[in-house]
């Protein structure tokens, strides 16, 4: 019995190593399935909760154009959540259970959404920085070993670059505007820079699951590699905008051909992960409220569908 | 949890006239009409489709991947079904 088990694991790893996608009904180790369900549902929850800080600004967007764009973006985030939930369901996870875990606080979502969006410039930073970081995370996931997850990510990535560009455009407009507008942009950057760096997760040394995820080709780059890429990408963009990244340690390193940068405040990171961020309760509260207030709609739709199906049956008889 | 989860539907989209419908993912909906409307909102926000099919997931039957080797075996050793199996003299054109 034991030998058969080992054999299956070896075969599985051989497929992974050959870059052959794993599909829903294929044999896979339990730990691979569990890791994926956790990662994909967490990712889906982040999309869902990610709608809240931006949804906040729909009624206060400064023009009809900005309002339309923001509405579209928030709708996209809902779509991304749905692609991902359906990918997780192919692994046997139930939608109701995933949502229940989010609402009870058992499941995590990206900590970035536990920071408040105080001014319109924050909408710029969320698009430019937060979605910029998300893209770096997500592009390699288009080649992740689990087929349905990879396909969902291809769809997500196609839509995500509009999100980043509209954010950059908000920042650019503010930076080319009045001194007060530029100050608002700088202030938003000051608040969002470090939390965005935290989006890539703990340092490699403190990320025990990374090695296994890399081995299974779920992940293609480590947290620190992606964080470095992000800094290298963003510092010149901030310079273009005439803004200063709030980290005195940021400096081009000729030998490494990369930017040096300072240490993330890991205490803050773990604190927000544990639920003590500025908006953790707000976000979960809003999420649970929306879900509960929508319950009657879900039940009514089901009752209506049942009634129509029964009527169709009687008519046929 | 109540038994209130909406049924799961598989979504197929024809991206443009002349192409076939292709599986794009799944979603939950109370009935077929809602499944098609949701599919429009979830999978075609950027004109990705001109036609949508939905089918309740429980109606999809699939071959078993564990049997794939044996199941597809009959096609494995019939190289003569491919045009490249045949040698065509250089002087012969249009074949």
Automatic annotation (TrEMBL), chain A:
<dbReference type="InterPro" id="IPR052703">
    <property type="entry name" value="Aromatic_CoA_ox/epox"/>
</dbReference>
<dbReference type="Pfam" id="PF05138">
    <property type="entry name" value="PaaA_PaaC"/>
</dbReference>
<dbReference type="GO" id="GO:0097266">
    <property type="term" value="F:phenylacetyl-CoA 1,2-epoxidase activity"/>
</dbReference>
<dbReference type="GO" id="GO:0010124">
    <property type="term" value="P:phenylacetate catabolic process"/>
</dbReference>
<dbReference type="InterPro" id="IPR009078">
    <property type="entry name" value="Ferritin-like_SF"/>
</dbReference>
<dbReference type="InterPro" id="IPR011881">
    <property type="entry name" value="PaaA"/>
</dbReference>
<dbReference type="InterPro" id="IPR007814">
    <property type="entry name" value="PaaA_PaaC"/>
</dbReference>
<dbReference type="GO" id="GO:0005829">
    <property type="term" value="C:cytosol"/>
</dbReference>
<dbReference type="InterPro" id="IPR012347">
    <property type="entry name" value="Ferritin-like"/>
</dbReference>
<protein>
    <submittedName>
        <fullName>1,2-phenylacetyl-CoA epoxidase subunit A</fullName>
    </submittedName>
</protein>
TrEMBL record, chain B:
<protein>
    <submittedName>
        <fullName>1,2-phenylacetyl-CoA epoxidase subunit B</fullName>
    </submittedName>
</protein>
<dbReference type="InterPro" id="IPR009359">
    <property type="entry name" value="PaaB"/>
</dbReference>
<dbReference type="Pfam" id="PF06243">
    <property type="entry name" value="PaaB"/>
</dbReference>
<dbReference type="InterPro" id="IPR038693">
    <property type="entry name" value="PaaB_sf"/>
</dbReference>
